[in-house]
Each structure stands twice: as structure tokens, then as C-alpha cells.
Amino acid sequence: MNNCFILLAAGKGKRFNSKEKKQFIYYRNKPLFMHSVEKAKKSKLFKKILLVTNNQIKIPNVDVIRGGKERSDSSFKGLKYLLNKKIKNVFIHDAARPNFSINLLKKLKKNLKNNKAVVPYINTNNSTKYKYKNKIINLKRERVYLTQTPQCFDFKTLYNLAKNSKNSVTDESSLFLKNNKKIKFIKGEEENIKITKKIDLYKNEIKTFYGIGFDIHKLVKNKNLYLAGVKIPFHSGLEGHSDGDVILHCIIDALLGALRKKDIGSLYPSNKSKFKNIRSPKMLRPLINNLKNNNYYINNLDINLICERPKVSKYRDKIINSLSKLMNINKNIINLKGKTVEKLGLIGKENAIACEAIISISKYE
Ligand code: ZN
């Protein structure tokens, strides 16, 4: 398995028009480039994953080096770094394409057995013209190849071509074409779009689901109060089979609702002793993994915490930080509101705390 995956993430993203670098912008709950890193890891095809970037960054089991001025400089830097590392095949990919499939990686690898270069392409649905010597001519669109990445190559062949290349090229297959070397073209993927402009971030959306949650627990003396996994100093804690974390229970129910999977009681029956005194973050974790494994991502989460005290404003940041960590999502998609009940009833007399939440999740393939 002497394959290496080079991920190019050193570009300036001139067309993206944002203060933040495009490759690091959040896209479906993680930085854009991480989609490619995770897929490369998950495919188990690679001995080495190399990230070429000008941002300081550390990722487990990923080598990181600095990029060059142009894409082709970064690509050559990556190839040079791999010299003497016994790499046979190299895959080169642009971080701006987060939506390729692992299946595509496998197809590329399979085709490389009898070729030195394998490149995915798609056709266009647009009528196509070409400007040639001040004249516009018609092209047959089925003969127009729009090439994508990942592209894969025999390492030595590509290295030698890149070493002797004087001009910068926009992808590695161009090097092969310039030198009249054969390329095996295979069908690429329509979904494997390149994120170039802001609007591209919202393409390929599939389906969005909403879930609502509600929970209430009695306050009792001599118990710690946990809200969203945070221990809060208070005169009482929430009674319950578990730690009584009313916010997390509410979110679990909201998530189950969005996933159309019944409710928290079905998932964690209170008559089962193995769930006794279970900490609520532990109850949430399998659901977060389930979302990830099934290609869901969270769009936003809105919470009403209903209590006389503790004051929500005092703990808002802590609670949101904790939720962001537990749910693996960005803080800016979480909102927490505090509601009092004008000292009325059980909640007003500080004998109970209630919570309601609504969550939105989307699924992509
Ligand atoms: Zn509960």
C-alpha cells in the first residue's frame, strides 16, 4: 500500500471574496479541507496523507508542509517531500473539492494498475463555444472534458514531469498532456463540485429535518446541578435516573425527533439498571456518532432554559462552549435563551427546571 494522498490547501481563493481562507471556512460542521482528509483516512488506501498549506496546523497522522506561490509550486513541493519515501502511487487533490466519494478513490486506484495517470472528468450540460484567434467556434459538448481532482499518478513519472516543467499548470493532467503522455480518463462525479465562490457552499443540499425536545426535572437538595454537561453551583440538583441534565435530555429528544427515532425513553429505558446514574454526555455521544456516520450535519440549535435561577446569562458562554464540544459543532450555530416564569408554580419556586429545544439537521450523500 504505497499510496500517498496529497491535499493542496495553500491557495489564496481570490474568487471567494472572504477574510477567512477558503480551505478553512466551515462547511457542513468542519473546515472545508477536513472533508478530504477524513475521507482519505476512512478509505484506508493511503500509507501517507500530506497536507500542503500555509496555515499552521496539526492533524494526527497527517504530514503538513508549507505550500508555494502557485498551485503547481505547492504540488511540486509535495512531490519533492515524498522523494525517498518509497511512494509508488500519488493522488493529488484540491481541498476546494470536499464532495468526492471514497468509491472514486477506489476506482482511480484500480485504473492505475495499467496506467501512469488516471483522471476523472465530467461533461457539461451547457452549449459550448471556444474562442480561437478572435473567432468563436462551436464545440461538441460531449467532446469537452471538464477534469476534476482527485487525480492519481505513478509517482516517478509525475515527479519527473513536474521537475522539468517550466510553466505553471492548473492541474497535473495538464503536465501529462503537454508531454504527450497517455492519460486514462474515467467518469467523475457531478457532486464533486469545486467550491470557488460563496454560493458554492450551498450547492448539493439534499434534505433538512427538524426535531423538537422538551424535558423537566425536579430540583432536590444534596445533588450536583448539571446543565449541558457543565457543573453549576446551585442550592439543589436535578433528580432523575441519570444526572438529570435537562438541557442534554432535551437535545437528545430533539435529535431523535429530527432522525425520526422515537424518544429518549426508548433509547435509554429507565427500568434498565445499566443506565442508572449514567452521565448525560455519554447518552448524547452515540447520537452524535450516528449523525456523522449517516452524513447528517447540524444547521442550528435553539434552546429555551426555563427556570427562575440560576441566571442563564451568567452561564451562557460555558453552556454553549460545552455543547459545541459535546456535539462537535461550531458555537455560532447554538443559541440559548433563559426564560423565567414570574415566580409561578413549581419552576417559579425553584423546585424544578424545564427546557425546550429545536434542532435542524441536513443530510448529504
Ligand atoms: Zn430528563
Description:
It is a single chain. The longest helix is centred in the C-terminal third of the chain and has 16 residues, at 312-327. The protein has ten helices and 19 strands. With 365 residues, it is α/β, with parallel strands linked by helices. It folds into two domains: 3-202, Spore Coat Polysaccharide Biosynthesis Protein SpsA, Chain A, CATH 3.90.550.10; 207-363, 60s Ribosomal Protein L30, Chain: A (2-Layer Sandwich), CATH 3.30.1330. The chain has helices spanning 32-43, 71-82, 102-112, 155-163, 172-178, 246-258, 264-267, 280-293, 312-327, 345-348, and strands at 3-9, 26-27, 30-31, 48-53, 63-65, 89-94, 117-122, 128-132, 135-139, 146-147, 151-154, 184-187, 207-220, 225-227, 230-232, 237-238, 296-306, 334-339, 352-363. The strands form five sheets. Strands 1, 4, 5, 6, 7, 10, 11 and 12 form an eight-stranded mixed sheet that branches. It has a five-stranded mixed sheet with strand order 16-13-19-17-18. The protein is 28% helix and 28% strand. Zinc ion binds at residues 215, 217, 240, 246, 249.
| Approximate shape | elongated
Q: Tell me the number of structural domains.
A: 2
- CATH-wise, what's the superfamily of the largest domain? Spore Coat Polysaccharide Biosynthesis Protein SpsA, Chain A
SSE order, one letter for each helix or strand? EEEHEEHEHEEEEEHHEEEEEHHHEHEHE
β-strand percent reads 25-35%
CATH architecture of the largest domain: Alpha-Beta Complex
- Here the CATH topology of the largest domain equals Spore Coat Polysaccharide Biosynthesis Protein SpsA, Chain A
* Tally of DSSP β-strands: 19
| Class derived from helix and strand content | alpha/beta
Helix content: 25-40%
**Radius of gyration (Å):** 26 Å
Ions, cofactors, ligands: which are bound?
Answer: zinc ion
Largest sheet: 8 strands, mixed
State mean pLDDT (0 to 100 scale).
93
**CATH level 1 name of the largest domain:** Alpha Beta
Output the number of helix runs.
Answer: 10
How far apart, in Å, are the first and last alpha carbons? 27 Å
**Low-confidence regions:** none
